[in-house]
Write a sequence for this structure.
């Protein structure tokens, strides 16, 4: 050690002609220089191993198609915004569409507008500028809104299936049961359930530390890819995701499944083919949306990841994050006669005011 006692010891034991003090001084200088160098190297490694941003690889291996991807996804985003906001506007202003079914569709359209806006704008900027980085807090924030809206959609789709069950299986009691107060309560329950469950998960994600690789092989921030980059214990986060994920998806899925079993059973008992087709037409659109949404989620999160599925992971993710919000207006409402009539009424009313 470079101390006074060490200096005295060197004075009495030096054999090479140098005084012990001068030798000790040189030794201390060397030790000090080594300590400074070690500290400097440690700080460099620490800075290198503590990333402040993540890199969303997305479709980065196809850089030559960046402009094509920008135009393609911009068109999807524009169609989704126009379609969903148009439905939301029509349900609000047209009294003929102010029914329980369209009340839930209005909620879904608003949700889809927010849902796709959490992912696509960042993707479009990446395609346009080539910058694929996103801050850690920006990544967690993106997941917060994405997870919250995805969980809410699970509940909303279940509420809509329950509405169709009452309309087809209990038509005489439908207006009494599915009143405005119940519709509002079901919608609020859906939104608050999604908000609560994902707030818990995100609060646990914020506590994670990152000190290694910072590349996410996806086009948005999802919980598992982010957790995989953490160097802290992620057991609590993964357990919370698993438990709360089951709470978010399994009860709504079972309610939806039970509703459609009852609906199909009831419709098959109808003797008139025309009446059967009319009954099926009222719920076929919802069934298509549910199948696309739950089918893609099942393939991404439930099915064991093989090499083939790993390569198709982004494609399946596109279905429930981007394509479903675009297709919902087309599948759900814009092809319905009531929505078309409401659109024509709104256009005529607007034209008469302008002219």
């Amino acid at each position: 050690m470079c101390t006074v006692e060490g200096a005295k010891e060197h004075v009495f034991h030096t054999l090479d002609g140098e005084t012990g003090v001068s030798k000790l001084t040189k030794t201390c200088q060397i030790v000090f220089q080594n300590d400074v160098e070690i500290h400097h190297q440690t700080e460099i490694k620490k800075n290198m191993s503590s990333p402040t941003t993540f890199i969303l690889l997305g479709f980065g291996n196809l850089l030559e198609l960046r402009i094509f991807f920008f135009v393609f996804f911009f068109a999807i985003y524009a169609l989704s915004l126009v379609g969903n906001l148009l439905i939301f506007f029509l349900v609000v202003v047209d009294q003929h569409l102010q029914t329980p079914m369209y009340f839930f569709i209005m909620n879904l359209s608003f949700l889809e507008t927010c849902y796709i806006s959490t992912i696509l704008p960042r993707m479009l900027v990446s395609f346009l500028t080539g910058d694929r980085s996103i801050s850690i807090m920006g990544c967690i924030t993106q997941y917060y809104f994405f997870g919250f809206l995805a969980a809410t959609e699970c509940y909303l789709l279940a509420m809509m299936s329950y509405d169709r069950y009452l309309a087809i299986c209990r038509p005489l009691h439908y207006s009494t049961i599915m009143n405005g107060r119940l519709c509002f309560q079901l919608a609020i329950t859906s939104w608050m359930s999604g908000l609560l469950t994902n707030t818990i998960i995100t609060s646990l994600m914020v506590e994670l530390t990152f000190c290694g690789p910072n590349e996410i092989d996806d086009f948005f921030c999802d919980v598992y890819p982010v957790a995989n980059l953490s160097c802290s214990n992620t057991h609590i986060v993964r357990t919370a995701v698993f438990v709360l994920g089951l709470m978010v998806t399994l009860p709504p899925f079972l309610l939806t499944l039970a509703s459609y079993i009852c609906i199909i059973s009831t419709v098959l008992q109808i003797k008139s083919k025309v009446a059967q087709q009319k009954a099926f037409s009222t719920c076929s659109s919802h069934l298509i949306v549910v199948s696309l949404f739950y089918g893609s989620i099942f393939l991404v999160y439930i099915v064991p990841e093989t090499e083939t599925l790993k390569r198709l992971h982004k494609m399946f993710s596109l279905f429930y994050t981007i394509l479903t919000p675009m297709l919902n207006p087309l599948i759900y409402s814009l092809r319905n006669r009531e929505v078309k009539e409401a659109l024509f009424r709104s256009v005529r009313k607007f034209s008469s005011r302008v002219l």
Observations:
- The radius of gyration is 30 Å.
- The chain has 13 helices and three strands.
